[in-house]
Amino acid sequence: MTVLQTALDPTGPDHRAHRAAMLAKLAELEAEHAKALAGGGEKYVRRHRARGKLLARERIELLLDPDTPFLELSPLAAWGSDHPVGASLVTGIGVVEGVECLITANDPTVRGGASNPWSLKKALRANDIALANRLPCISLVESGGADLPSQKEIFIPGGAIFRDLTRLSAAGIPTIAVVFGNSTAGGAYVPGMSDHVIMVKERAKVFLGGPPLVKMATGEESDDESLGGAEMHARVSGLADHLAADEPDALRQARRVVARLNHRKAHPDPGPAQPPAHDPEELLGVVPDDLKTPFDPREVIARIVDGSDFDEFKPLYGTSLVTGWAALHGYPVGILANAQGVLFSAESQKAAQFIQLANQRDIPLLFLHNTTGYMVGKEYEQGGIIKHGAMMINAVSNSRVPHLSVLMGASYGAGHYGMCGRAYDPRFLFAWPSAKSAVMGPQQLAGVLSIVARQSAAAKGQPYDEDADAALRAMVEQQIESESLPLFLSGRLYDDGVIDPRDTRTVLGLCLSAVHSAPYEGARGGFGVFRM
After folding, report:
1. How many Å apart are CA 241 and CA 97, to the nearest integer?
2. CA neighbor of 341 nearest in space, from 278, 288, 399, 282
3. Per-residue model confidence as pLDDT tens digits over 295-323
4. 395 domain-assigned
5. What Cα–Cα distance (Å) separates residue 477 from each residue in 376, 470, 494?
6. Within this chain, do residues 91 and 227 fall inside the same structural domain, yes or no?
7. Are the C-beta atoms of 278 and 345 separated by less than 8 Å?
8. What is the DSSP string of 229-248?
9. 286 and 430 housed in the same domain
10. What pTM, to 2 d.p., does this model score?
């Protein structure tokens, strides 16, 4: 039998304590998500509604097929910065007329939908996802262009938005723009470079320069409608392919455009799948609040894969890394999950072989992170930990099957790389509220700095200030701890969102479905030199 058994006791004190800590983190997460949902605040939401307009997420809801999910991406973008949480842009994946699409929607209640540096990063990440997974891209546009006080951080890299639109089109991936209001200056190129354009009558305004700028540049007097109104673009310039009577009509027309795309997934959906044999609700109590305490990742695997059915690979070798085969919502997956945190030489070699096997079989890989990194020390250095860790990273870097990553606990040092962190281009990467990621743990990093400072003082023959050392260690620990937390990392788009552990199976299922929209083939060779 390959159905995983469970050793969790949901009524035990440890499970209850872990659950309580996770629920507290989820409450904090919900409060931050609420800030993104609030947009520009009650005043600007009320003013927007008074103009008879829908909010960004209401537009998305009308666009999507009824009763289908929307996987929102990067909802915490800009967290901890000077810009509002969410970065004035909503992005995500949803189903329109049976077609999975990448959807972006400006939030006009936040500074008129103007783009700040984090909006740009969020939009570029969305474009990357659309291109990698061949998802039609629908832009729900209402933006005043760049947030001018931030122009020095937006103007030069911002050109990639328009480059991406043309590359998507050139790759045969449809692009659709629905314009509800202002789409000015650089923002005018979004409809200008999209395959299909719908504009709302008497509301859409698309021009490179509005009347004040035209007056300053040329002396010409003009008005919004004649310069860039929807009717003018539908009748005169030809920029608008469809003229909509109002917002619901524009979204209806967008759905009809998608219905006529003849866009097909590269892989058929696998059909119904058996749910896990163990309750996903119990995932709340799996990860200890103190990440130094190990936990068995099989308890996680048992609550996310189909039927809790898992064929483990090399279960007696390299036991701090669990590897094996399963299905998730019907899609085959190879899973690598950290067990005791540290990666040794055996685990690294096991991972490299497993990744090669997945590539031979064209099976996507799922990385479940809880690692403090590769093992250090004289014995391990002499045993070849560098070349073995490099072997694992080599395999991850050159693997061509889709990768998905979930940070459950620690994800420190080069272990983050070996487990396919953000720099290794996983198709999607999510974090649990319990996750932490940095070059090393706060205490270790502060301790290293203390040792270096102590050695420096000794080399100079100077006395060492113990009080200053204690203050330095405390300051560094606090800084690294705050910069390791998922809200901080998600705010910088180092993941695609912080998710409730109970939603992990659903989120991964949606991602696997999106991944299978594009063809892929594993690497049959093409790995770098494995140092033996």
Report:
1. 20
2. 288
3. 999 999 999 999 999 999 999 999 999 99
4. yes
5. 21, 11, 21
6. yes
7. no
8. BHHHIIIII---SEEESSHH
9. yes
10. 0.94
